[in-house]
Design brief:
The chain is an all-alpha fold. Helix content is 70%, strand content 2%. The protein has one domain. A two-stranded antiparallel sheet has the order 1-2. α5 packs across α6, α8 packs across α10 and α9 runs antiparallel to α13. The C terminus is likely disordered.
């Protein structure tokens, strides 16, 4: 097992917990609207602020702003790291079929089954008739398809298709790309500056027209307009790291990235200030030079996202190179936890609306309960799917035994080797 796989596994588990915390705390930020918006009236602000609680805490504003700027970039980066090894192991076509099934089926189930259940309490907050039938009538009349966090799945499918196309390039082109990645790994400082420059070029022009929370798309295929190229860029970075070998180069446990973890952390904090100060001045100071401040803030956003992603990776390479048993099940079930979590977040926030509890207490209850319930749902789903696979395998084996000629050699029915094997 590569020595850097444990830090990356631990990072994936912590990243999922941070995403759950981000959504759990969003009901209690000070910058939430004063009252919940109507469910069936444009611009459908409940998509951004599903549950609005009267209890607020400014600390959640800082936390959510901090996480909003880099979490999904890091998520796409880690998703890309393991793609190339999987392509080598499976081959292009089997890999693509596998990803279409593993991501496409949850996307459809999530959008058309899970999201209506998740958003039902959002409707009930302002509903005249809170019954399910009334909600369904309003839901089906919406001129949009709310996807919640499921947008990540369809966009990841698109990026995986792009990765397969790169994998199918001629050998000469792949060797050229490998040499380029090798040179980048040998010069991490210059590589970071170069990546930051490309990231700024892909973000700043779009940021002039679209805010970070502006979504565009058709039907369920929506994406943040300004962030979409960023997500693709971080996925490609992860793809390149995985192709080069994530156990060496930048991700080596004794490499330069790990050694400079503190510089990356402090650089990230400075970049966060470079974003939040201009953003605050634009919002609070009349007559401030908005155009200039916006450019500075946009560059601060890009710099912070890059520094935070590199810093998080470096910190985990430095301090998380051992197993974290409590985090193992979260990391191993990260994507299915992501799939289930929004349902629990919104229902828990809704259930706590009338409770006399400070915002910090409510946020803590929601995030802890969401982690536990999402993990339980993930494990239960895996167990049921494993049982179905075992049953189908036994049925197929019994069918072969029944169809075999009596005079032929005896046909043995292999025993199932447990849920773990059925999930491989």
């Amino acid at each position: 097992m590569p020595t850097s796989s444990l830090p990356l596994k631990n990072l994936r588990g912590v990243l999922i917990v941070l995403i759950l915390a981000f959504h759990s705390f969003s009901a209690y930020i000070v910058t939430q609207p004063a009252a919940p918006p109507a469910f069936d009236q444009p611009p459908y602000d409940w998509l951004a602020f599903p549950i609005i609680d009267n209890e607020r805490w400014i600390g959640f504003d800082v936390f959510c702003a901090f996480q909003f700027l880099y979490l999904m970039q890091l998520m796409f980066f880690l998703s890309g790291v393991f793609v190339w090894p999987s392509l080598r192991r499976r081959g292009a076509r089997p890999y693509l079929y596998h990803r279409l099934w593993r991501l496409g089926a949850p996307f459809l189930l999530g959008v058309y089954l899970l999201m209506p259940l998740a958003y039902y309490p959002v409707y009930r907050v302002t509903a005249v008739d809170p019954e399910w039938s009334a909600f369904w009538a309003h839901w089906t009349a919406l001129p949009l398809t709310p996807t919640g966090p499921m947008w990540f799945l369809w966009f990841l499918i698109a990026l995986n298709i792009g990765a397969v196309a790169i994998y199918r390039l001629p050998a000469r082109a792949q060797r050229s790309l490998a040499r380029l990645v090798g040179k980048a790994a040998a010069h991490p400082g210059g590589s970071f500056v170069g990546f930051l420059a490309v990231s700024a070029i892909t973000y700043l022009p779009l940021a002039a027209f679209y805010s970070p929370w502006k979504w565009l798309g058709v039907g369920p295929f929506e994406i943040q307009a300004a962030f979409a190229p960023q997500y693709a860029l971080y996925f490609l970075l992860g793809l390149a790291v995985g192709a080069h070998g994530y156990e060496r180069g930048l991700f080596a446990v004794d490499g330069s990235l790990m050694r400079h973890w503190s510089s990356l952390v402090f650089g990230g904090l400075a970049a966060f200030l470079l974003w939040i100060v201009p953003t605050a001045l634009i919002a609070k100071v009349p007559g401030s030079p908005v155009a200039l401040l916006r450019v500075v803030g946009d560059f601060g956003l890009v710099a912070f996202a890059a520094a935070a992603c590199f810093a998080m990776t470096a910190v985990f390479l430095r301090f998380a190179a051992a197993r974290w048993p409590l985090l193992d099940p979260v990391s191993e079930n990260a994507y299915s936890i992501y799939f289930f979590h929004y349902l629990f977040v919104l229902w828990l926030q809704y259930a706590l609306l009338g409770l006399a509890l400070p915002a910090v207490g409510k946020g803590a209850v929601v995030v802890v309960a969401t982690v536990i319930l999402s993990l339980a749902a993930s494990l239960a789903t895996n167990w049921m799917l494993a049982g179905v696979r075992i049953a189908l395998s036994r049925a197929a084996s019994l069918g072969q035994a029944t169809a075999s000629p009596v005079s032929g050699a005896p046909v043995s029915v292999p025993a199932a080797d447990g849920p773990a094997a059925s999930q491989r």
